[in-house]
């Protein structure tokens, strides 16, 4: 068999793979992006609610157990609580997704590596999964099932006269 006879089937296979990848990107990726946002949001939101439910205990933990480097315990507790209560709401809505995921990623990094190095009970393998998921949101954004996408499309259409994402 000569190489020229084997190329057309290879091209057809490559075209079929490309078409399949395009369909997955168009139909499955938005659901994956939404799933990641919806999976990450309650983890942090519940933590923020727990901090709010007993503020003196939260400050005590930041003072004696968490020992976040650089920040005073009360400020660290307030920032962590505010971040955990606001950023998940933005993730669910897909509004400012990249900016909402970034502080949650930083918090996870601090918990895993700074706090976890001081207190090994805060070192958890699941944090690596969270870091990967949050990094994906920072890199990819909220996806097409987000307010970010809706706003971007509307702004682009209003300023350019055409949608940036043509209909399939």
TrEMBL record:
InterPro entries: DoxX, DoxX-like_oxidoreductase
Keyword annotations: Cell membrane, Membrane, Transmembrane, Transmembrane helix
Keyword Transmembrane carried by entry: yes
Location (main, coarse): membrane
Bilayer topology: Multi-pass membrane protein
TM spans (from-to): 70-93, 100-122, 128-147
PANTHER family recorded: INNER MEMBRANE PROTEIN YPHA-RELATED, OXIDOREDUCTASE CATD-RELATED
Family: Belongs to the DoxX family.
Protein name: DoxX family protein
Organism of this sequence: Azospirillum oleiclasticum
């Amino acid at each position: 068999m000569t190489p020229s006879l084997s190329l057309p089937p290879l091209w057809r296979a490559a075209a079929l793979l490309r078409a399949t990848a395009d369909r997955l990107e168009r139909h499955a990726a938005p659901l994956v992006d939404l799933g990641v946002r919806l999976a990450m949001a309650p983890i942090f939101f519940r933590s923020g609610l727990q901090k709010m439910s007993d503020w003196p205990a939260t400050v005590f933990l930041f003072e004696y157990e968490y020992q976040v480097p650089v920040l005073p315990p009360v400020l660290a507790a307030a920032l962590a609580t505010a971040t955990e209560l606001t950023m998940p709401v933005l993730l669910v809505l897909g509004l400012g997704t990249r900016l909402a995921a970034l502080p949650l990623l930083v918090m996870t990094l601090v918990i895993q590596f700074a706090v976890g190095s001081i207190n090994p009970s805060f070192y958890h393998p699941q944090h690596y999964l969270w870091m990967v998921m949050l990094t994906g949101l920072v890199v990819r954004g909220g996806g097409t099932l987000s307010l970010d996408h809706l706003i971007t499309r509307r702004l682009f259409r209003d300023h350019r006269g055409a949608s940036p994402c043509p209909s399939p």
